[in-house]
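Why do we bother with a discrete structure alphabet at all? Because it lets us treat a fold like text: something you can write down, compare, and reason about line by line. To make this less abstract, here is a complete entry for K(+)/H(+) antiporter subunit KhtU. Read it the way you would read a sentence in a foreign language you are learning: slowly, and without expecting to understand everything at once.
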Amino acid sequence: MAGVLFETGVAFLALALAGALAHRFGQSVIPAYIVAGIIVGPYVPTEIAGVSLQLVTHGEFVTTAAELGIVLLLFFLGLEFDIGYLISKGRELALLGSVDFLVNGAIGVAIAYAFGLGPLGAVFVVGIVFVSSSAIITKSLTDAGWLANPESRTILGTLVVEDIIVAVYLAVLAAIVGGGTLEGAARSVAGSFCFLAALALVAYYGSDSVERVFDVGPDELFVLRIVGVAVAVGALALSVGVSEAVAAFFVGTAFSTTNLVERIEHLVMPLRDIFAAVFFFAIGLDTDLRVVAGVALLVAVAALATTASKLASGYAGGRLTGLSARRSARVGIGLLARGEFSLIVATLAAASTVPAIRETVPPFAVGYVLVMSIVGTLAIAHEGVLTSRLASESS
């Protein structure tokens, strides 16, 4: 017990120091949190001047806290999103998702074949490079103050469609890897959509009831109810094969039209930031630089190619939704980061019976997520420089 408590203390101190340094130099805290996890994690560097840096393992506490971070980040994302927009703009969002998937999926297939991973490898690589990180992007948009901007609605809409696509993708991929049947995968997908539809209906029609149930006096009880329902629904979602992140998003939308939003932001946001920091820290803990170095060329090629493809698909999506050239460019920039879903695909790849996939795809995913999480957060923080050529366009 003392060992777990010590590791927890080290983790929070490392995050505090990394965050302070990031703020000191005017940078996003997300890359700093990831690097902090690498430094004090179980992999290299192992020591400095004879002092061991292997201070924190990816144990049960880190795993659970990271999951809480994902749930709370996506809950707050839903808090900023109008469920009525999602329902009324179904065709528009389907078009956004199609462009996003076709452009980035094609690049994923090309990368897999270029590095000799074959058709099954292409299925894994597409999943890794296609899906943007809802958790990282939500935090980055919040830090940059973009959530009130018109382009954020297109970004968030694209993320929701990606998450729905990924629910289908993961069910099929799990069936392939685990030796299951496509019929079983179809049942899983159908159950997932029924669950999400139920959440959407509650969010759309039940906001008055939600407000009555959760509008309690003591702040302590209020926070416990909010966090409790978000986490419980996320856990229930996982049990039926739905991402806890997608479920938490819909829970957040149920509160978005209530009078509780300001109180939630005031009381729950500090809790969100703490657990979100652990989520990014956990990415660093999982990064073995020695293993990633073995697939460095693959990571570099994928990062360059998919940065270009995501910028292109995001720009196209922005124009399709009527945004100006500069705001459309911001959509592409806002979607660059990859994260949690790519790592889930990596865990499935590690169970593959194909040696080339089992040995190459997991380290590639970890290295790719590390690079793209840093690229994505820095791109949002410095988007003014990246879009300077479009400065004359309407904003």
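What the structure line is telling us, in plain words: Strands lie at 47-48, 51-52. The longest helix spans residues 150-177.
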